[in-house]
């Protein structure tokens, strides 16, 4: 496949062959065995961290096993690499030296270096076997010629060393051997795009990485879990895709980022305000075929078999799988059932002014007057659409979804009050900026997500003690005004008994009497803005 490109006026004339951008599919053996490969000085440092390395190793293991069971494709495509071919100018005075070139890696450095480290770790393991005892595949591995990159950046050297040690530990613990080596060298492929103009190479790189609509995280997850379908599930592929594609892009993004990701992260004490492609591993889990000998996998496979039997007898395909937000994800078809379940809870739907949120309407009979009042207020108060207020609402909604997922309508009204008192205390205390909610959850005296994760009964969560809410230093001082809408939220805090009664006079309800220590004492306890 070729694509003709022209050089800018004034550049050195190129032959027709050089003007062509050449693309070919090559095995990893051929790619890493190109002795002319070079990482140019203008490349950024090698920066892949442990999560990316571990994901690559897991993908290789899964694909190796699938190929060995004849469930996978004949080859495993590992993306596109872009190379700029540059002639090497030999020093003057040297005669009859064959012309040669350097192949500068413009795109694909991170994958290439990591795969090179994998092969070097495998070769190091092979050297530990006495020479007379080495099987033929280890001899062939050690006989390989691999290019040796030079790294101008000290950061690259540090990361290479750290990742090499991690890879060596992994392949030793996972007992990588002939199957993984054969798969790497013969089945793993890259699409190599070769250009002779550096300008064109960078233009191609930009077109590959910066134009068009980037894949969302949920798109990547969809592709991963479709590949993870087991042979028995392939007949249901169309059904899974059809249900997924009935969900709008915006709503899917909101469902994952605002609810599924938040809950799984915050229940484990991790940051959850920013959801991106580096978090795709949060929604990858147990492969029932791949880890067939692992007790955890056997447990979930037994559950899957029982659910499948029930589905086939009752005609309730996709409606029986027991979903829990903090449970391990089961790769393949059950992941799509899992997502469809939480889509059906309607938390991702927007709330109309002066109405209950869509999810709450089905629980209307179970909600108290105060709980309904809080939910309606959150959908109408002035300032609800401010960015900071939206961050707080996201945490509030995620916590309620988590509670409903675990305990249903039991104690739901109390859960609404608790979630409001905890989450909105942060908004009343001081202005919410980017990243504020991650810091708030980590520094809060109590993390309700973690409490709910460990709760066995509703009372284990509903009995949780929360600190009092108050106006912090952000809203004190001459000329400082309370943002619109916070007074209405403060009145709810007061009614529920969560308001510390030290309030700017202009905002204080008339029936509140000051019964707390003086300003000097309480101000020392507050966080600075």
Explained architecture:
This protein has helices at 16-19, 28-32, 50-68, 109-127, 136-143, 154-173, 178-187, 198-210, 217-227, 237-245, 249-266, 295-314, 333-343, 358-361, 369-378, 387-407, 412-429, 436-443, 448-454, 458-462, 486-496, 519-525, and strands at 2-4, 20-27, 37-38, 76-87, 101-107, 188-195. It has 529 residues and is of the alpha/beta class. The chain has a six-stranded mixed β-sheet.
Radius of gyration: 29 Å
Estimate the helix proportion, in percent: 40-55%
Give me the strand/helix succession: EHEHEHEEHHHHEHHHHHHHHHHHHHHH
Q: What is the topology, as strand order, of the major beta sheet?
A: 1-2-6-4-5-3
Q: Please identify the structural class as seen in this structure.
A: alpha/beta
Number of helical segments with 4 or more residues: 22
User: Could you give the count of β-strands?
Assistant: 6
Taking pLDDT < 50 over at least 5 consecutive residues as the criterion, the unreliable ranges are 1-19, 505-529
The termini sit apart by: 59 Å
- Major beta sheet summary: 6 strands, mixed
Report the sheet-strand fraction: 5-15%
Question: Average pLDDT value?
Answer: 84
User: What would you call the shape?
Assistant: globular
């Amino acid at each position: 496949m070729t694509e003709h490109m022209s050089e800018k006026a004034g550049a050195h004339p190129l032959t027709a062959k050089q003007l062509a951008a050449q693309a070919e599919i090559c095995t990893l053996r051929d790619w890493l065995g190109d002795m002319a490969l070079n990482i140019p000085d203008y490349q950024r440092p090698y920066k892949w961290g442990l999560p990316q390395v571990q994901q690559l190793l897991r993908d290789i293991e899964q694909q190796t096993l699938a190929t060995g069971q004849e469930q996978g494709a004949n080859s495993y495509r590992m993306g596109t690499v872009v190379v700029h071919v540059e002639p090497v100018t030999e020093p003057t005075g040297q005669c009859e030296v064959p012309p040669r070139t350097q192949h500068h890696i413009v795109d694909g450095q991170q994958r290439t270096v990591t795969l090179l480290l994998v092969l070097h770790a495998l070769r190091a393991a092979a050297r530990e076997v006495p020479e007379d005892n080495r099987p033929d595949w280890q001899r062939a591995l050690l006989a390989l010629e691999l290019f040796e990159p030079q790294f101008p950046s000290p950061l690259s050297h540090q990361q290479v060393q750290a990742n090499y040690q991690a890879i060596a530990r992994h392949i030793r613990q996972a007992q990588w051997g002939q199957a993984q080596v054969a798969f790497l060298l013969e089945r793993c492929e890259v699409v190599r795009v070769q250009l002779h103009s550096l300008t064109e190479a960078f233009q191609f790189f930009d077109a590959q990485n910066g134009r068009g609509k980037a894949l969302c995280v949920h798109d990547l997850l969809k592709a991963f879990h479709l590949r993870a379908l087991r042979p028995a599930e392939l007949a249901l592929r169309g059904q899974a895709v059809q249900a997924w594609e009935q969900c709008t892009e915006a709503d899917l993004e909101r469902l994952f980022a605002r609810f599924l990701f938040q809950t799984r992260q915050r229940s484990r004490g991790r940051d959850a305000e920013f959801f991106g492609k580096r978090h795709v591993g949060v929604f990858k889990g147990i492969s029932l075929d791949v880890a067939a000998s692992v007790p955890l996998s056997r447990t979930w496979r037994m559950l899957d078999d029982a659910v499948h039997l029930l589905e086939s007898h009752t005609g309730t395909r996709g409606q029986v799988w027991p979903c829990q937000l903090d449970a391990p994800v089961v790769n393949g078809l059950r992941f799509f059932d899992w997502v469809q379940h939480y889509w059906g809870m309607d938390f991702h739907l927007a709330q109309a002014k002066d109405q209950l949120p869509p999810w709450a309407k089905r629980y209307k009979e179970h909600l108290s007057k105060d709980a309904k009042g809080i939910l309606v207020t959150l959908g109408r108060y002035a300032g609800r659409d401010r960015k900071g207020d939206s961050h707080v609402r996201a945490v509030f909604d995620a916590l309620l979804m988590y509670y409903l997922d675990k305990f249903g309508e039991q104690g739901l009204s109390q859960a609404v009050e608790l979630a409001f008192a905890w989450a909105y205390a942060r908004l009343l205390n001081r202005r919410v900026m980017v990243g504020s909610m991650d810091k708030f959850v980590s520094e809060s005296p109590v993390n309700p997500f973690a409490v709910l994760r460990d709760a066995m009964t509703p009372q284990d969560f509903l009995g949780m003690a929360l600190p009092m809410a108050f106006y912090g230093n952000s809203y004190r001082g001459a000329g400082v005004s309370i943002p619109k809408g916070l007074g209405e939220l403060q009145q709810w805090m007061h009614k529920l008994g969560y308001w510390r009664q030290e309030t700017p006079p202009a905002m204080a309800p008339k029936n509140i009497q000051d019964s707390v220590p003086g300003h000097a004492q309480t101000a020392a306890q507050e966080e600075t803005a």
